[in-house]
Amino acid sequence: MCGISGLVYLDDVKPSEVVLEKMNDSILHRGPDSGAIHINGNVGLTHRRLSIIDLSDIANQPFSSDDGRYTLVFNGEIYNFQELKAQLVSDGTRFRTKSDTEVVLSLFEKEGMAAFAHLNGMFALAILDNQTGELTLARDPFGIKPLYIYQSDSLIVFASEMKAIRQVPDVSLTISEQALTEYFWYGNPLGNHTFYNEISELDAGCYMRIIKDGIQTERYFDVTTVAACHSSNDVVRKTRDALEQAVKRHLVSDVPVGVFLSGGIDSSAITAFASMNRAEKLATYSVDFDFSKQSSELPLATKVAKQFNTLHHEVKVSGKNVMQAIETLVDMHDEPFGDAADIPLYLLTEKIKGEIKVVLQGDGGDEFFGGYSRYNTISHRKKWNLLRPLMPIIMSLRISNTKWMRFQRFAYAITRKEAWHRHALLLTMESKNTNPLQILNGNWRKKTVKRDPFKVYKEQYNRLPDNIKDIDALFIVDSQIILKDTFFEKVDKSTMANSIEVRVPFVDKELASWCLATDGERKVKDGGQKALLKESLRGIVPDEILDGKKKGFGVPYAEWLKGPLKHDFESHISTEIAKSFIDYDRVHKLFLKHVSGRGNYGFLLWKTFILCIWLNRTAS
To answer: Helices 602-619 and 177-186: crossing angle, nearest 10°?
Structure first.
C-alpha cells in the first residue's frame, strides 16, 4: 500500500519540485519506507511506498519502463499479478523485479486501457506517457482505494488524499452544497462528491485519460452487467470455493499477514481459509475496547483462534484520549466524516503499529451476502405495503420514544413507491419529520434545501437493467455507495494513518462478481441473513458462530457528548467559523435536550460536532 499524487499544467508550465515534495510529504504516513518524484514536461508524479511485495529498492516508485517511455505511480495490491506475469513471460516479456508494480506497467505497455480489466485487486494509479505527455488515471472496480482529482481551466491535480492537493498554491477551493446536504443525511458525501466543488473522486471501475485534446473518462468494469446472470445447482460448494480462493489470493505478500478476528462470521471465515492456505502460523488480532458496553465477542474469537491454531493477540484499547483520535481522523479524512466506527479502528491500528504491515478484514461480507435486515425487508416488501393506508396516522403521531421514531422512519421508507427512494431512506438515520439541514444557519439552509439528498441513489438506480429484482438492485447499489463511500473511506483513512494495509477478501473481484451474479433471494433464503454464506461455511466455522445472533459494534458517541466530550462540543460549536455554518441557538437547544435525556439527537449532534472540528482545524 502506498500514497500517490501528481499534477498536470494544461498551459505547459513546468511543475515545481518544491511543491511536489510538499505534496509527497503530506501523505508520508501512507508510505514511510521510501518516496520520490518524477517530472516530465508539464507533468509531475509523486509516490510514497509502504513495502509489501518485492522489498528491494529496485521496485521503488515512480517506476519506469525499460525504454523510459512510461512511468507509473501505483497505490494498492494486485492479487493475480503472478498469473498475469506468467502470461506476459510466455509472450516474451522480461522482468527485472518481483513486484506487481512492474506487471501492471508491462501489461499496460502491451494492452493499453484494456489492461485494467485484467487486474484483480485494490488500486489507484497514474501512468504517464513521457513521449506524448498523455496521463492515465485508474481506480479499482469497487473503489477500495481512493483517488481524488482537482480540475480547473489550467490545472489538474490528483492524490490518494485531498491534503496533498491542498499543498498546491494554484488550487482554489469552495464548499460543496451537495456534499454538505449528503453529509447531514448519511454521514458522508456520496458518489464522486467531496466537500469541495473543485475536487471529485474518480468513479470505481473507471479510467481517465488526460490528453492534449481534453479529458476522457471511460468505465472498464460495470457492476450492473453481472447482476443475477447465473443460476447454479451447486451454489453452496462454488461459493465456498470462491471465498477460499479469494482469501488465498489476498495472502500474497513478502511481509507477514494477519487477520482482524472479531468472532463474527466474516472474520472467522477469513481466519479459517487463511490458516488452511498458509504454511506458517497466522497472526490474529481481537480487540477489547474499554468504552464498549456491548457483550464481548472475545470468547468466540478465542475459540476460532484455538481451532485454527493461530498466533492470537487480544489487544486492549483505551478511549482515554478519544478527542485526540477524533482530531487526527478529521485531518486524515480531509472532510467531515460522520461514521464514528473509524475511531476504534484507528485506535486498534495505532496500538499494533510496527508489529504488522498487512491485515485482512471482513468488510464486504454483509453487502455481498445479505448481512443486514434491509435485504430481508426488501424481499418481503409487498407485505409492508399494507402500511400505506395508515401512513398519515403513523407520521402524525409525535411520540418521544426511540423505538417509535425508528418505526416511523422505517415505515415511511419502506412504503415509498420508487426503489431508489426506499433504499436511500433505509440508509439514513434522518426522517421526513426531522430534516437534518435545519441545524444549518439561514444562509446555508437556503443553499442546501435546493439540493437533492437522493441524487446519487437515483443515478445508480438509473444505471440498472429495467427487469432487475428489488433485492438484486439493493446488493448492487450497496456495493457502489455505502460500501465504497462509507466503509472503504473509513478503512483506508483510519488504518493508513498508522501505515497499516488492510485487505478485504470479500471484495475480491472474482468473488464479488460471483456474489452479485447469484440470485439475491438465495442469499437470504427463508428470511435468514447470510443464509448462503452460512451454508457454505458449515463444517468449517463453528456452528456457535454461524447460528449466533449478529452483533454490531456501537461506538458510544451519544454518551460521549453527554460526558467526556461535552466541553469539546460546546467549544467547537461556539467559534465564529462554526457559527457561519450552523444555527448555534438551535444546535445548543438540541444539545441541552440531549444531555438532559429529554431527547436523543446523538447522530445529528455528532455530525455537527465533526463538521465544526473540521471547519476550525481547516480554518487554522
So the answer is: 140
